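Work Package 4 report. The design task specified in the project plan requires that, given a folded chain encoded as structure tokens, an amino acid be chosen for each position. We show below one input record used in the internal validation round.
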């Protein structure tokens, strides 16, 4: 199914998926079903099982067996690399099917979904090399009688909880790296966007991943997710989602087995634009950074901080860009901005659009609700005349809402940029490289873009400072996150006896 159909439309019938246990899909059977309606077309598109605690326990047990008997961690890096490479090839072969379900469940434009799926295949291909490169260290400076070896060992069974905004991309920024380390996985996708995770599990089995190394349980965060974060037999949890649930992960880890945590949480990311920037490029980047994925993006550039001398002109330039954005049916290849993924998120964004005006900010443009016959859509909005204490400036809205604050000096720009509980990402636009690099050093964020935004790839790590999370995903840093280090002291020659 890799040939793009000329005119895509939603399916006549929803596709039913099983959850994934020990190498095979398990149909829902007696379990209740969770039906997903396309946020853009308002028709049912998928059904998944509402897994039980017993299902979760079975998935963790399968992952435990697969880890403990070393069927995966005991392989050479080269053998693991072979499976990851094959998985990358199969993702490319099935790209159209994955992108189609990603768009149906999430509401993102099909062209964007296709790009993300291609990026995901790339993640697998890159991580395959890391499976072969991961190694420890040795110390021959301990004197002639002692040799030291440091090994990197996989942490064990990894629980992986992912959100609905980039269901496949976020999954693939983690899974190949976790598998490269030798760990086994129990994944729980968001209950509204589970299809692509279930497709990946099937692909991994087809690629030769041993049974039990990738399991997927489906269902709500409040039951299945909570069960995972409290589980005594999950050694590490990689959670991507809201800061609120991230806090619960920390509490649950403390209450249960002190599982190792990787947390990728919220963001309220600054876009700092200096007057000496290429303002055409910057306006395009700022518009893209807030409208991409309807702003439902942890790294979306939602706080524009712009040098006062160009602030009004630059706001008008961004406005002009945003007013020309093509909002529409995400199955249409020319659509740039699709639907708002969930009803709750739609209500949150509309709430902030109201609140911003009540707090005294001026809605320069957007916030409109285009009538496309069905579905939830919001035109990208800009607020000016904002102050730093307003909720639209402080809170992560997770929608296409940009606020603009002017600055006079570099110090002030940095100070405003750092005035947030988050530290996920930041962009700076200037043609003065000294200025741009000074800003990258002083703003506290895990990812930085200079004269671009939202660039990424498999090589560079992702992750946040401050309340945006702990740890890093992707790149060799991402593989190492899923390992722990063991020290081995080896005595050479005859021991000097302690006892008489
Ligand atoms: P969310 O925290 O509500 O849900 C994320 C996942 O956690 C889902 O699978 C959900 O089912 C599960 N979950 C919910 N309650 C749970 C609980 N009590 N225990 C365990 N799991 C639970 O977030 P969301 O609404 O799906 O996504 C939006 C949020 O995610 C935003 O804050 C956004 O910034 C953040 N996010 C961060 C990144 C990143 O890389 N930093 C990426 C994407 C999204």
């Amino acid at each position: 199914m890799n040939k793009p159909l000329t005119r895509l439309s939603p399916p006549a019938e929803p596709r039913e998926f099983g959850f994934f246990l020990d190498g095979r899909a398990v149909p829902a059977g007696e379990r209740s079903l969770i039906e997903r309606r396309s946020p853009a077309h308002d028709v049912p598109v998928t059904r998944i099982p509402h897994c039980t605690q017993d299902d979760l326990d079975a998935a963790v047990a399968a992952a435990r067996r697969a880890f403990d008997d070393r069927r995966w961690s005991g392989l050479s890096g080269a053998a693991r690399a072979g499976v990851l490479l094959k998985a990358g090839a199969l993702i490319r072969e099935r790209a159209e099917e994955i992108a189609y379900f990603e768009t149906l469940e999430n509401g993102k434009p099909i062209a964007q979904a296709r790009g993300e799926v291609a990026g995901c295949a790339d993640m697998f291909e890159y991580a395959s090399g890391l499976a072969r490169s991961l190694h420890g260290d040795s110390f021959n400076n301990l004197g002639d009688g002692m040799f030291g070896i440091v090994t990197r060992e996989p942490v064990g069974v990894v629980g992986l909880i992912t959100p609905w905004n980039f269901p496949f991309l976020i999954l693939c920024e983690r899974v190949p790296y976790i598998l490269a380390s030798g760990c086994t996985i129990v994944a729980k996708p968001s209950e509204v966007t589970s299809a692509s995770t279930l497709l990946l599990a099937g692909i991994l089995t087809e690629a030769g991943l041993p049974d039990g190394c990738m399991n997927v349980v489906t269902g709500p965060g409040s039951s299945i997710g909570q069960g995972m974060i409290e589980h005594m037999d999950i050694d590490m949890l990689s959670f991507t989602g809201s800061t609120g649930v991230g806090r619960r992960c920390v509490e649950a880890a403390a209450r249960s087995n002190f599982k190792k945590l990787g947390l990728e949480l919220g963001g309220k990311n600054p876009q700092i634009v200096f007057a000496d920037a290429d303002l055409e490029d910057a306006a395009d980047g700022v518009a893209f950074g807030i409208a991409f994925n309807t702003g439902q993006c942890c790294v979306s550039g939602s706080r524009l901080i712009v040098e006062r001398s160009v602030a009004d002109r630059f706001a008008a330039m961004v406005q002009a860009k945003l007013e020309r954005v093509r909002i529409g049916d995400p199955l249409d290849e020319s659509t740039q901005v699709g639907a708002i993924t969930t009803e709750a998120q739609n209500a949150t964004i509309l709430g902030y659009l109201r609140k911003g005006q009540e707090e005294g900010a001026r809605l320069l443009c957007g916030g409109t609700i285009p009538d496309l016959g069905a579905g939830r859509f919001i035109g990208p909005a800009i607020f000016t005349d904002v102050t730093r204490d307003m909720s639209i400036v402080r809170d992560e809205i997770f929608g296409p809402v940009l606020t603009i604050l002017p600055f006079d000096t570099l110090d002030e720009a940095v100070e405003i940029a750092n005035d947030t509980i988050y530290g996920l990402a930041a962009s700076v636009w200037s043609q003065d490289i000294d200025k741009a690099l000074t800003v990258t050093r002083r703003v506290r964020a895990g990812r930085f873009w200079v004269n671009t935004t939202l660039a990424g790839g498999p090589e560079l790590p992702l992750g946040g400072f401050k309340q945006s999370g702990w740890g890093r995903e992707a790149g060799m840093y991402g593989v190492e996150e899923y390992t722990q280090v063991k020290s081995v002291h080896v005595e050479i020659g005859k021991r000097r006896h302690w006892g008489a």
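The chain has 16 helices and 23 strands. Validation will be extended to a larger panel in the next phase.
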